[in-house]
Input
Amino acid sequence: MFQEVQDLQDEGATLKALLARLSPEEWMRPTPFKSWTSWDVVGHLHLSDLWAMAALDGRGMGSDGRDARFEIAAAKCRASEAVEKLTRLSHQVHGAIGFTYEYGLHFVTRRLWAWRAEFGGAGEWGEYLGRAACEAGGDGLWPLITA
Output
Protein backbone atom coordinates (compact mmCIF):
# COMPACT_ATOMS: atom_id res chain seq x y z
CA MET A 1 0.00 0.00 0.00
CA PHE A 2 1.27 3.48 -0.84
CA GLN A 3 2.26 5.70 2.08
CA GLU A 4 -0.25 8.31 0.87
CA VAL A 5 -3.11 5.84 1.30
CA GLN A 6 -1.95 5.00 4.83
CA ASP A 7 -1.68 8.72 5.62
CA LEU A 8 -5.24 9.31 4.39
CA GLN A 9 -6.50 6.42 6.51
CA ASP A 10 -4.67 7.75 9.59
CA GLU A 11 -6.05 11.26 9.05
CA GLY A 12 -9.50 9.79 8.57
CA ALA A 13 -9.31 7.93 11.88
CA THR A 14 -8.22 11.12 13.68
CA LEU A 15 -11.01 13.12 12.06
CA LYS A 16 -13.57 10.43 12.90
CA ALA A 17 -12.60 10.59 16.57
CA LEU A 18 -12.94 14.39 16.55
CA LEU A 19 -16.30 14.31 14.76
CA ALA A 20 -17.71 11.72 17.17
CA ARG A 21 -17.60 14.38 19.88
CA LEU A 22 -19.71 16.94 17.96
CA SER A 23 -23.20 17.69 19.23
CA PRO A 24 -26.20 17.84 16.84
CA GLU A 25 -26.10 21.65 17.09
CA GLU A 26 -22.43 21.72 16.12
CA TRP A 27 -23.15 19.56 13.06
CA MET A 28 -25.65 22.15 11.83
CA ARG A 29 -23.41 25.16 12.55
CA PRO A 30 -22.85 27.41 9.51
CA THR A 31 -19.37 27.48 8.01
CA PRO A 32 -17.50 30.10 5.95
CA PHE A 33 -18.73 28.23 2.86
CA LYS A 34 -21.96 29.84 1.71
CA SER A 35 -24.97 27.80 2.91
CA TRP A 36 -22.82 24.81 3.96
CA THR A 37 -23.08 23.38 7.45
CA SER A 38 -20.39 21.38 9.20
CA TRP A 39 -22.27 18.27 8.03
CA ASP A 40 -21.97 19.35 4.36
CA VAL A 41 -18.26 20.15 4.63
CA VAL A 42 -17.41 16.85 6.32
CA GLY A 43 -19.42 14.90 3.76
CA HIS A 44 -17.60 16.65 0.92
CA LEU A 45 -14.20 15.99 2.50
CA HIS A 46 -15.07 12.34 3.13
CA LEU A 47 -16.07 11.82 -0.51
CA SER A 48 -12.86 13.53 -1.66
CA ASP A 49 -10.82 11.20 0.55
CA LEU A 50 -12.59 8.16 -0.88
CA TRP A 51 -11.83 9.30 -4.42
CA ALA A 52 -8.21 10.03 -3.51
CA MET A 53 -7.78 6.59 -1.96
CA ALA A 54 -9.24 4.97 -5.07
CA ALA A 55 -6.92 6.98 -7.31
CA LEU A 56 -3.86 6.20 -5.19
CA ASP A 57 -4.50 2.48 -5.15
CA GLY A 58 -1.77 1.16 -7.44
CA ARG A 59 -4.08 -1.22 -9.31
CA GLY A 60 -6.95 1.24 -9.55
CA MET A 61 -9.16 -1.38 -7.96
CA GLY A 62 -11.46 -1.03 -5.00
CA SER A 63 -11.39 -3.51 -2.16
CA ASP A 64 -14.16 -5.49 -3.86
CA GLY A 65 -12.10 -6.01 -7.04
CA ARG A 66 -14.06 -3.51 -9.16
CA ASP A 67 -12.23 -1.05 -11.39
CA ALA A 68 -12.52 2.23 -9.49
CA ARG A 69 -11.00 4.26 -12.34
CA PHE A 70 -13.67 3.03 -14.75
CA GLU A 71 -16.44 4.00 -12.35
CA ILE A 72 -14.88 7.39 -11.64
CA ALA A 73 -14.45 8.03 -15.37
CA ALA A 74 -18.08 7.21 -16.06
CA ALA A 75 -19.28 9.41 -13.20
CA LYS A 76 -17.04 12.29 -14.29
CA CYS A 77 -18.30 12.12 -17.88
CA ARG A 78 -21.95 11.99 -16.83
CA ALA A 79 -21.55 14.81 -14.30
CA SER A 80 -19.77 17.02 -16.84
CA GLU A 81 -22.52 16.38 -19.36
CA ALA A 82 -25.17 17.21 -16.74
CA VAL A 83 -23.43 20.49 -15.83
CA GLU A 84 -23.60 21.68 -19.43
CA LYS A 85 -27.32 20.92 -19.73
CA LEU A 86 -28.17 22.20 -16.26
CA THR A 87 -26.43 25.55 -16.63
CA ARG A 88 -27.81 26.12 -20.13
CA LEU A 89 -31.38 25.41 -19.00
CA SER A 90 -30.99 27.44 -15.79
CA HIS A 91 -29.96 30.52 -17.71
CA GLN A 92 -32.73 30.01 -20.27
CA VAL A 93 -35.34 29.71 -17.52
CA HIS A 94 -34.09 32.89 -15.89
CA GLY A 95 -33.94 34.78 -19.16
CA ALA A 96 -30.14 35.16 -19.06
CA ILE A 97 -30.46 37.43 -16.01
CA GLY A 98 -28.10 34.97 -14.34
CA PHE A 99 -25.16 36.68 -16.04
CA THR A 100 -25.75 39.93 -14.14
CA TYR A 101 -23.85 40.56 -10.93
CA GLU A 102 -27.00 41.25 -8.92
CA TYR A 103 -28.40 37.78 -9.63
CA GLY A 104 -26.55 34.93 -7.89
CA LEU A 105 -26.96 32.30 -10.59
CA HIS A 106 -23.68 33.19 -12.28
CA PHE A 107 -21.73 32.31 -9.12
CA VAL A 108 -23.12 28.78 -9.16
CA THR A 109 -22.67 28.49 -12.93
CA ARG A 110 -19.02 29.50 -12.86
CA ARG A 111 -18.28 27.10 -9.99
CA LEU A 112 -19.98 24.23 -11.82
CA TRP A 113 -17.97 25.01 -14.95
CA ALA A 114 -14.77 25.04 -12.89
CA TRP A 115 -15.62 21.69 -11.24
CA ARG A 116 -16.28 20.23 -14.68
CA ALA A 117 -12.67 20.95 -15.65
CA GLU A 118 -11.02 19.80 -12.40
CA PHE A 119 -9.18 16.48 -12.25
CA GLY A 120 -9.38 16.02 -16.00
CA GLY A 121 -12.15 17.01 -18.33
CA ALA A 122 -14.84 14.84 -19.84
CA GLY A 123 -12.73 14.35 -22.96
CA GLU A 124 -9.84 12.86 -21.01
CA TRP A 125 -12.07 10.54 -18.98
CA GLY A 126 -14.13 9.69 -22.07
CA GLU A 127 -10.95 8.63 -23.83
CA TYR A 128 -10.13 6.37 -20.87
CA LEU A 129 -13.61 4.82 -21.10
CA GLY A 130 -13.19 4.28 -24.83
CA ARG A 131 -9.84 2.55 -24.38
CA ALA A 132 -11.29 0.35 -21.61
CA ALA A 133 -14.23 -0.57 -23.83
CA CYS A 134 -11.93 -1.46 -26.74
CA GLU A 135 -9.69 -3.55 -24.48
CA ALA A 136 -12.71 -5.41 -23.08
CA GLY A 137 -13.92 -6.29 -26.57
CA GLY A 138 -17.46 -7.11 -27.63
CA ASP A 139 -17.92 -9.98 -25.21
CA GLY A 140 -16.31 -8.18 -22.27
CA LEU A 141 -17.99 -4.79 -22.53
CA TRP A 142 -21.30 -5.67 -20.87
CA PRO A 143 -19.68 -7.38 -17.86
CA LEU A 144 -17.33 -4.40 -17.52
CA ILE A 145 -20.27 -1.97 -17.39
CA THR A 146 -22.47 -4.05 -15.10
CA ALA A 147 -19.83 -5.44 -12.71
About this structure: Residues 1-58 form one domain. The mean pLDDT is 75. The first helix runs from residue 3 to 19. Residues 136 and 144 are 7 Å apart (CA to CA).
